[in-house]
């Protein structure tokens, strides 16, 4: 099948590359000439392990191409995926559908035969029906169906998530659209991965509900971590004891500086807004949002306390600023709250991150970027672990401590044990919930 993917951001590019690896003919569309030039040269504009090699393989096989010409991409396509951004609107936190609706209108003008228009972007309930109305208004004669196919890709593990998913969610309105979507995902169906067939509204809501629930787990364990510190318990033991319960599960029960990224902050705010619009406040989700922001601010206070109440004039080494390891994504990262607070407090902040500099230089003004954590630690008065990259899980703590003028550590990901840190020479060590 020929497939057009509109948008080559994180979701669009990963989806397009993986669809081509299924054997489909995929054309990815983007309006950004700089991004298209990179893709045409075989370079990936985002960091995602394994993506560049998989893209090169399918381009070489003639199944994957990139263009700025939407009409040519849509011509003859059996399915057109909308994978453009839906950022949170300023003011009300709702998902901004400007790019989605603009793409729908352009697709309408380009349709030459029957196609299923599939929304891959995360969109509020009712959006797919709005897309259908927009296309019908622009092209009353168009022959098409709409489908909702939300993504569930973890940054850093996106290819594996696409190829071996927990489930594929597809919302359709009729059997014809279902047949097209079944053909697209046939390789997964043959390998018996679960496909959830449902209506448009349920598919749209599944995405928000899933992300809000995971954000709730993270926020819950962060609140438990604060209580652990007050009562003398260890949050890692508490989380393990909880996670072994099959009804709860161990994933997303890791205490830290709060959640971030492209999905959880945006999607929790959007779900809260959807509830408000329908007169049914999502009280748990609204509380999760507020508590998560408080967690980030509490981490700033923890660093200040570690440094004797002030960071003014002190050299602080920050290890990791992306919202999670194995990605270059800085969106809503805890570092965007914590690092500016340190800079604003007069600290001389040095940053080491394997992939964060490309985005971080613009987002974190006033910091010095380094490649080597040991050199960056020279004469530092505190080191803060914000992102648990593998490089930071295997540090020579004794060497790090010797480089510092005052060996203090704020381990905000609980990478090390207090005993190991003190044995290595750190005179002060704080973590989360221990």
Q: What's the average pLDDT?
A: 95
**Largest beta sheet, briefly?**
6 strands, parallel
Low-pLDDT segments, ≥5 res: none
Looking at CATH, the homologous superfamily of the largest domain is: NAD(P)-binding Rossmann-like Domain
Could you please say which CATH topology of the largest domain applies here? Rossmann fold
Characterise the protein shown here.
The protein is of the alpha/beta class. The protein has 2 domains: 2-198, NAD(P)-binding Rossmann-like Domain (Rossmann fold), CATH 3.40.50; 232-434, 3-Layer(aba) Sandwich (Rossmann fold). It is 46% helix and 14% strand. It contains 19 helices and 14 strands. It has helices spanning 10-21, 33-40, 51-60, 70-74, 98-110, 127-138, 158-163, 175-184, 186-190, 200-231, 235-243, 264-277, 283-306, 335-344, 357-363, 373-376, 390-393, 397-403, 418-423; strands spanning 2-6, 25-29, 64-67, 79-82, 115-119, 144-148, 168-171, 195-198, 315-319, 348-352, 368-370, 382-385, 408-411, 428-430. The strands form 3 sheets. It has a 6-stranded parallel sheet, with helices on both faces. A 6-stranded parallel sheet has the order 11-10-9-12-13-14. A two-stranded parallel ribbon has the order 7-8. Strand 9, helix 14 and strand 10 (348-352) form a beta-alpha-beta unit. The longest helix is centred in the middle third of the chain and has 32 residues, at 200-231. It is globular, with a radius of gyration of 23 Å. The model has no long low-confidence stretch (mean pLDDT 95).
Give a concise summary.
With 434 residues, this protein is of the alpha/beta class. The protein has 19 helices and 14 strands.
């Amino acid at each position: 099948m020929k497939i057009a993917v509109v948008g080559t951001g994180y979701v669009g590019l990963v989806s397009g590359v993986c669809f081509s690896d299924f054997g489909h003919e995929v054309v990815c569309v983007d309006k950004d000439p700089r991004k298209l030039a990179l893709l045409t040269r075989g370079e990936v504009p985002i960091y995602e392990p394994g993506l560049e090699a998989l893209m090169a393989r399918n381009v070489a096989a003639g199944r994957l191409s990139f263009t700025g010409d939407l009409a040519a991409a849509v011509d003859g396509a059996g399915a057109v995926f909308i994978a453009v951004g839906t950022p949170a609107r300023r003011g009300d936190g709702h998902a901004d559908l400007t790019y989605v609706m603009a793409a729908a209108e352009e697709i309408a003008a380009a349709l030459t035969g029957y196609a299923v228009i599939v929304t891959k972007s995360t969109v509020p309930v009712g959006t797919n029906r709005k897309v259908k109305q927009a296309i019908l208004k622009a092209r009353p004669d168009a022959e098409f169906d709409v489908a909702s196919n939300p993504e569930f890709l973890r940054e850093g593990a996106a290819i594996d998530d696409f190829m071996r998913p927990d489930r594929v969610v597809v919302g359709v309105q009729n059997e014809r659209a279902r047949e097209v979507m079944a053909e697209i995902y046939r390789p997964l169906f043959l390998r018996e991965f679960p496909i959830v067939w449902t209506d448009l509204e349920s598919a749209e809501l599944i995405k928000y509900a899933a992300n809000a629930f995971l954000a709730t787990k993270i926020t819950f364990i962060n609140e438990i971590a604060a209580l652990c510190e007050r009562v003398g318990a260890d949050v890692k033991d508490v989380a393990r004891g909880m996670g072994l319960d099959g009804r709860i599960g161990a994933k997303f029960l890791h205490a830290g500086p709060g959640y971030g990224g492209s999905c959880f902050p945006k999607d929790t705010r959007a779900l809260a807004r959807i509830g408000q619009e329908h007169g049914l406040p999502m009280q748990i989700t609204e509380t999760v949002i507020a508590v998560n922001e408080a967690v980030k601010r509490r981490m700033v206070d923890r660093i200040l306390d570690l440094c004797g109440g002030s960071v003014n004039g002190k050299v602080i080494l920050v290890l990791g600023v992306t919202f999670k390891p194995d990605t270059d994504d800085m969106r809503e990262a805890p570092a965007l709250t914590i690092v500016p607070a340190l800079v604003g407090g007069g600290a001389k902040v040095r940053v080491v991150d394997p992939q964060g500099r490309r985005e971080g230089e613009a987002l974190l003004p006033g910091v010095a970027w380094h490649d080597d954590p040991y050199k960056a630690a020279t004469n530092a008065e505190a080191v803060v672990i914000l992102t648990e990259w593998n490089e930071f899980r295997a540090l020579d703590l004794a060497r790090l401590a010797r480089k510092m003028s005052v060996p203090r550590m704020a381990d905000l990901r609980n990478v090390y044990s207090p005993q190991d840190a003190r044995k290595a020479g750190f005179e002060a060590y704080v973590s989360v919930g221990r």
